[in-house]
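Quick sanity check, TetR/AcrR family transcriptional regulator:
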Amino acid sequence: MDPVPVTATRARETVLRIASDLFYRGGVRAVGMEMIVERSGVAKTTIYRHFPTKDALIEAFLEREDREFWQQWEEVVASHAGESRRALSGLCDWVGDRVSRDNYRGCPQINVAAEFAECEHPARKVAHRHKAEMVERLTALCRELDISTAELRAHQIGLLFDGAFMSNGRLGNVGAAAILNDAVGRLVGA
């Protein structure tokens, strides 16, 4: 298979970067393809060559967010290798920092999934996989703590994290990381 020309790769990445920013700030339904063409400077035919539909572009946006999220998650967990309790605390700090950022608008997965009622929509499928992955990863950390109710605790921690992601910045002023650390500590018996 021949490598993709640099210009095609650059055009795809430019469109995805611009669309991702617009989708995150304004919501996917509020952003039309014409706006993406205008802001990216990439011809509509080129965009549709890389993303045959707007739904395909939305899916690529969420998959990109997913990869970046898990890369950062792994960095936090790896910095506490072998210390699951500290890894959970580090994740609480990381989530707290995320939700306290300027212009934070919530979890892209949750935001986009909320815009589509159809369970089979690609955006909903990516969001579902993302949240299932979070519970799996949290379950593994809770099992390392030898908690008999590891899966239950993982679901509870996942709900706390999702609540923080949906807090619309309200937790930034009151210490999101401290709130999460306290709640998670109580759940895992810190």
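Posting the structure with no commentary besides this: The chain has two domains: 1-52, 61-188.
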